[in-house]
Design a protein that fits this description.
With 415 residues, this protein is of the alpha+beta class. Helices cover 40% and strands 22% of the residues. Helix 1 (14-33) runs antiparallel to helix 5 (136-152), helix 5 (136-152) runs parallel beside helix 10 and helix 6 runs antiparallel to helix 9 (219-226). The chain binds histidyl-adenosine monophosphate (HAM). Histidyl-adenosine monophosphate is lined by residues 80, 82, 111, 113, 118-120, 123, 125, 127, 129, 261-262, 282-287, 305-309, 311-312.
Amino acid sequence: MVIKVQKGTKDILPSEVSTWQYMEEKAREVFGLSNYKEIRTPIFESTELFARGVGDSTDIVNKEMYTFEKSGRSLTLRPENTASVVRSYIENGFSRLSVPVKLWYKGPMFRYERPQAGRQRQFHQIGVECFGVKEPACDAEVISLAINYLKALGLNDLTVEINSLGCNSCRLEYRNKIKNILNPYLSRLCSDCNIRYEKNPLRILDCKVDSCIEIMENKEIRNIIEESFICNECLDHFEKLKKYLDVLDIKYTVNRKLVRGLDYYNRTVFEIKSNNLGSQNAVCGGGRYDSLVETLNGPSTAAVGFAMGLERLYYLIEKREDKKLDFYIISGNTIEALRFVNEIRNKGFSADFDYTCKKFTKQLEKASKVSRYALILEEDEIKNNTITIKNLASGDQKTILQDKFLNNISSILEE
Ligand code: HAM
C-alpha cells in the first residue's frame, strides 16, 4: 500500500517554497525594523507547560494536543508558541535584560482539529512576543507591527477587531453576571459550552455552534455582552489603546464577543481577519498576558504578542515564481561539463547540467525551462578553451575564452 501524507498535514512542495521563504524573509525584515530578535524553541515540550500555560479549560489543552509518553514523561508537540517562549524567557533569565525584550518566531504547530480549508493539524505560525511593558502603547505597537507585516506581504483587505477582557478582579464579577444570565439556557447550550460554563464562561460568547449563537442573540444577553464591565484602570488602558490606534491610522472595530481560545489573556485581545477567506478567516490573533510569566514560576512580567497562520497567508498573497538557474551547461562531454559546472558553482553562481549527454536539442529545451543562460561546451569549445554563452530570453549568443567567462560572470549576468 502506498503511504500517504497524514490527514490535516501537507507537503510544502518546491514550487511553493519560494512563497514560503518570501513570507519568512519579510518577517525577518519587518520585525527586525522594530528590534525583534528571532528565537527558536523545541517542537516538543513538557505537557505541563501547555496545561498550565494555555489553560486546562481550553479546547487546545482538552482536545487538541498531540501528547505522548517517553521515559515516563508526558510530552506534547507544541500547539502554540507563546508558552514555549515564556518558558525559555524564564529559563534563560531574560528578565535580567533591559526591557522591552522583543522576540519573534516561526515554525510548525500541532493541533488535533477537524481539518478543513484554512485549518490543519500541522500548521505554521509566525509570531512576536514583547516582554516587560505594561503600557497600552506597547499593545498598539504590536498591533501595528502585525499590520505592517501584512501590508508588506501586499495584504490590505483586512479587519481589525479588538476587545478588553479586563483584569482578574473585574472579570470575576462579569463572569458571574454571564453565568447568571445563561443559567436558564444551560440545557440548550452545546456540551462544550456546558463545560465552559463552569471553567471559563466567557468562552461561551464566542461559541460557533448555531444553537449557542442563537441564544447569544437574545436581547437581554446581548445587552450584557455589549455593556462595558471593566474597571476604571482597565478602561483607561483600553481607551488609550484606541487613541494610539487612531494616531497610527489603524481602523478597528470593538467586538465585545472576542474572547480568544487561550486562557492566558487579560485586558487587550485582538484578531485580524481577512475578507477573502472562508469560515477560518482569522489570519492573526493575539493579546496581552501579564500573568503568564508568573503562572509559569517566573518573575511578574507584563507581556503582549500575536501569532499568524502562514497557511492562511499563503492562500492570500501573490505567489512568487521559483528563481531560474543562472546557467545550464549543454555538452556531450560529461567530464568537461562536470568540471565547468563545478567552477561556476565555486564562484557563487547557480548552474546545472545533463548527466546523460542527451541530444543537443533536448539539452537546449531543458536549459530554456530552468535557466537564464545556456553555456554550450561542445567539441570546438573544448578544443579552443572557449564557451558559447546563449541568452535564453533574447536568443543572442557569443563565444569567449573560458577564463574570461569565469572572471566576468557578474557582468555577463547583468548584460
Ligand atoms: P491562535 O489564535 O490560537 O493564537 O492562533 C493564531 C493564528 O494561527 C490564527 O489566527 C490562525 O491564523 C492560525 N491557526 C491557528 N490554528 C490553526 C490551524 N489549525 N490551522 C491553520 N492555522 C491555524 C495563538 O496561537 C497565540 N499563541 C497567539 C499569541 C501570541 N498571543 C499572544 N502571543
